[in-house]
């Protein structure tokens, strides 16, 4: 049986600096994985490698058993992997609805056509409406994305990511910059929209991590030092020493 | 919650397109002079060219400095096709020659656009500049195709006539251009409503993200470039028929710059902006250039002020004021508008007098020191004239600035009121 996503001895150098130093990871279909680690550990780089933004220096990335490490981002996306960004990355001068409709077009097979009217694409319009309701932005349908509040933009970011129907979803710090109450609401939203999908998320908020993830991967200095269930990771001495520290571990236990 | 709403949307759309057709049909019956006849024909051609340019600039965020390559090469291929009809070696009806230009546009866009659209942003702009220079240099080298200094001339009364339409009289060629203009404008509008057209907007806004929703941005740009090339070629073919002569100037940098300048002036952010731009282009090239030798300078100044104060062009100015009018607030600021126009006009008269005096000294000094400007005799070497002009200009500028500051405050207040009104209506 092949994994939904598998990394084999993945490495990435920028010049002489090794950022990713031999990462091995195997994710089963339907699992929710949280990737944690101190700043600069290489979490975002890992996402950039998987999604095709950068090419790796060596190693393999397999998506549903197929190698993707030298493919372009759009090819990887067409194979069923989609990602969001830490810094909001939407289409600012398009409306909320247009943002989502753009995101569903390829998966419905419309490709580059200019022989059909958008208004006649019933499936694309319905799907876009569906996702718009899912991320609770249906009241802001015709508002330009740049005029949304920050939290709404983050929701749209997730909406664009899931709208293409990909089975493997990477979320890069989805709750970055949000208040506590917004975060907890947002985590429920993420849980809801990623049902049945394989989810990898980079997250800083420990409460979020332990509430959301089936498994946690701890990345320190470009290596995965632990990959296990939240309880096992919490009690892992190596992790406590390298990352959580006794204080954080206690705090995390409270949630 | 879904309620039944009356949507005036489609009614409005029908109305606008019918109006557009009516204007195209009746314009030559109202403006009957020879000059206005040729100007109307040129406006149709310029409208298609500017709209095709805006597929790149406004819709795709591609700043091209070489759009004349595709209109110009379309012109050359069309005029050669016309000459082959005259010579009897081909049987295409003259009415379809613009399409020949269009397919030539596609061909060259497929070929040259592949290299051009490999990059976006600044590299894209530089490559278009390079390609434009390359084609212009070739136009001087290959005189068989480009006709050297004299260009290639033709005679549009060629081949078989259908229903007695020979395209000899200007009015017949005008209606051919009008039909092409209507269809091309409609097709280019339709393009903005298709999946490729929308993804092109997405590529303009955020190319990186487009790569992560399954689209190859390079290919989106390439396809859009080819479509723009098609309409540019049609415009070029119509130009060849209209003027019956094509010189290498049509692929030159000046022409490319003109498309950029007037598309921007008209407004790249709205679909109808370049239509205004195309009309202005002909007005400037035909009328303003007759009015004054310094017309390029005035045009440059206008462009400068537009880029600085109204980067959305005339179209955005219209739309902003329509919004204000829709909320019934135009009556609060019309006095300021009047003041702005009057003071700007006064400043322009002062500046214009000085510009004309400089031009007179440089170009017409053999005719003496006196020149007429707006009914007044000015002495280009007289202290009085200079002092008077400077006084008029500075007075105008000073008052303009004072009114402008007042206007900005009023404008800001009105926008806040409108925002409140919108919130109130949403809540209701």
What does this structure look like?
The complex is a heterodimer of chains A (255) and B (428). With 255 residues, chain A is an alpha/beta fold. Chain A has 2 domains: 1-80 and 168-186 and 195-255, 3-Layer(aba) Sandwich (Rossmann fold), CATH 3.40.50.300; 88-165, no CATH class. Chain A is built from 9 helices and 10 strands. Chain A has helices at residues 43-50, 73-78, 96-105, 122-134, 150-163, 180-193, 206-212, 230-234, 237-253; strands at 5-14, 17-27, 32-36, 58-63, 66-67, 81-83, 168-172, 198-202, 215-220, 223-228. In chain A, the strands form 2 sheets. Chain A has a 6-stranded mixed sheet, with helices on both faces. A 4-stranded antiparallel sheet of chain A has the order 2-1-4-5, covered by helices on one side. Chain B is mostly helical and 428 residues long. Chain B is built from 16 helices and 4 strands. Chain B has helices spanning 9-30, 34-60, 68-86, 97-116, 121-141, 143-146, 170-191, 195-205, 207-211, 217-243, 253-266, 273-291, 295-309, 313-326, 330-363, 383-427; strands at residues 152-153, 245-246, 370-373, 376-379. In chain B, strands 1-2 form a two-stranded antiparallel sheet. A two-stranded antiparallel ribbon of chain B has the order 3-4. Chain B is globular, with a radius of gyration of 24 Å. The model of chain B is unreliable at 1-8 (pLDDT under 50). Chain A binds chain B through residues 51, 72-74, 77-78, 82-83, 85, 89-94, 98, 101-103, 105-107, 110-119, 121, 160, 163-164, and chain B through 190-191, 193-199, 201-202, 204-206, 208-217, 219-220, 223, 227.
How far apart, in Å, are the first and last alpha carbons of chain A?
Answer: 35 Å
Major sheet description of chain A: 6 strands, mixed
SSE series of chain B:
HHHHHHEHHHHEHHHHHEEH
Shape field of chain A = globular
Global structural class of chain B? mainly alpha
CATH class of the largest domain in chain A: Alpha Beta
Please outline the major beta sheet of chain B: 2 strands, antiparallel
Estimate nothing, just give the exact number of structural domains of chain B: 2
């Amino acid at each position: 049986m092949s994994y939904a996503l598998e990394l084999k001895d993945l490495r990435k150098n920028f010049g002489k600096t090794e950022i990713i130093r031999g990462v091995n990871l195997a994710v089963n279909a339907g699992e929710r994985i949280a990737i944690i680690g101190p700043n600069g550990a290489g979490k975002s780089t890992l996402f950039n490698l998987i999604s095709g933004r950068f090419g790796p220096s060596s190693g393999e990335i397999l998506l549903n058993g197929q190698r993707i490490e030298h493919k372009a981002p759009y090819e990887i996306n067409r194979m069923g992997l989609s990602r969001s960004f830490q810094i909001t990355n939407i289409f600012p001068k398009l409306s909320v609805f247009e943002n989502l409709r753009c995101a569903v077009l390829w998966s419905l097979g419309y490709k580059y056509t200019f022989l059909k009217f958008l208004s006649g694409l019933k499936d694309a319009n319905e799907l876009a409406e569906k996702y718009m309701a899912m991320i609770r932005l249906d009241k802001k349908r015709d508002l330009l994305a740049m005029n949304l509040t920050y939290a709404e933009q983050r929701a749209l970011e997730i909406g664009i990511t899931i709208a293409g129907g990909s089975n493997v979803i990477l979320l890069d710090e989805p709750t970055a910059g949000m208040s506590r109450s917004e975060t907890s609401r947002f985590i429920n939203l993420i849980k809801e929209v990623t049902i049945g999908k394989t989810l990898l998320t980079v997250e800083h908020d420990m409460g979020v991590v332990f509430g959301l993830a089936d498994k946690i991967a701890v990345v320190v200095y470009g290596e995965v030092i632990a990959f296990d269930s939240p309880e096992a990771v919490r009690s892992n001495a190596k992790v406590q020493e390298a990352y959580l520290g006794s204080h954080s571990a206690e705090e995390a236990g409270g949630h | 919650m879904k309620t039944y709403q009356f949507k005036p949307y489609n009614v409005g759309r029908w109305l606008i397109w019918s109006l557009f057709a009516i204007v195209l049909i009746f314009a030559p019956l109202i403006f009957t002079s020879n000059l206005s006849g040729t100007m109307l024909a040129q406006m149709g051609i310029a409208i298609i060219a500017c709209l095709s340019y805006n597929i790149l600039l406004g819709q795709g965020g591609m700043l091209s400095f070489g759009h004349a390559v595709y209109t110009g090469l379309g012109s050359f291929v069309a005029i050669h096709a016309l000459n082959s009809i005259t010579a009897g070696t081909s049987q295409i009806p003259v009415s379809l020659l613009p399409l020949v230009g269009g397919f030539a546009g596609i061909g060259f866009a497929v070929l040259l656009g592949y290299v051009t659209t490999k990059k976006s942003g600044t590299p894209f702009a530089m490559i278009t500049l390079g390609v434009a220079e390359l084609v212009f240099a070739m136009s001087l080298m290959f005189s068989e195709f480009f006709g050297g200094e004299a260009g290639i001339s033709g005679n549009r009364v060629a081949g078989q006539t259908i229903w007695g339409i020979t395209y000899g009289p200007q009015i017949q060629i005008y209606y051919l251009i009008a039909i092409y203009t209507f269809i091309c404008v409609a097709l280019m509008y339709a393009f903005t409503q298709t999946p490729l057209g929308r993804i092109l907007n997405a590529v303009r806004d955020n190319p990186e993200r487009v790569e992560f929703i399954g689209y190859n941005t390079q290919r989106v740009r390439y396809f859009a470039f080819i479509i723009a090339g098609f309409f540019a070629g049609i415009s070029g073919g119509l130009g060849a028929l209209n003027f019956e002569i094509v010189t290498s100037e049509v692929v030159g940098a000046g022409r490319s710059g003109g498309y950029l300048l007037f598309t921007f002036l008209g407004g790249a952010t709205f679909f109808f902006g370049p239509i205004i731009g195309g009309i202005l282009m002909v007005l400037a090239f035909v009328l303003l250039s007759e009015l004054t030798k310094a017309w390029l300078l005035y045009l440059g100044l206008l462009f400068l002020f537009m880029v600085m104060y109204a980067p959305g062009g005339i179209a955005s100015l219209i739309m902003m004021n329509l919004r204000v009018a829709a909320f019934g607030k135009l009556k609060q600021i019309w006095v300021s508008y009047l003041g702005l126009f009057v003071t700007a006009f006064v400043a322009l008269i002062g500046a214009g007098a000085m510009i004309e005096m400089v031009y007179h000294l440089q170009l017409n000094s053999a005719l003496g020191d006196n020149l007429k400007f707006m009914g007044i005799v000015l002495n280009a070497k007289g202290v009085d004239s200079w002092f008077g002009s400077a006084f008029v200009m500075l007075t105008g500028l000073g008052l303009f600035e004072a009114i402008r500051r007042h206007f900005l405050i009023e404008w800001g207040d009105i926008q806040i009121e409108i925002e409140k009104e919108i919130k109130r209506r949403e809540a209701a």
